[in-house]
Specification:
117 residues; four-stranded antiparallel beta sheet
Length: 117
Amino acid sequence: MKIYKIKVNGKTYKVELEAMEEIASEAPKAEEKKAEAPKALTPVSGEGNKVLSPIQGTVLSIAVKVGDKIKKGQKVCVVEAMKLENDVVSDFEGEVAEILVTKGANVTAKAPLIIVK
């Protein structure tokens, strides 16, 4: 471990850095990273009203389960974009028929997340 002084906008900071050889054994291999990657958006297979993602981002959590009764305006999941968490609410009232994404999935804007019947 080495300690360096860095000056940013006139302010001095102390930074500790580790050599790459020291942590290379701890880092997962490229093949392992691909295997651990979150699942992509699954194709829409059901009929019904689709709750769409308002933005491109990563699904942080899903607040409903298949079979849950939901109301219009109820939070169904959270999508994170640029370090901001955005609650996704349902525009429909009904029963959750299908969940098309998993936690950690990357979604595009207007991508269907949940089907409500």
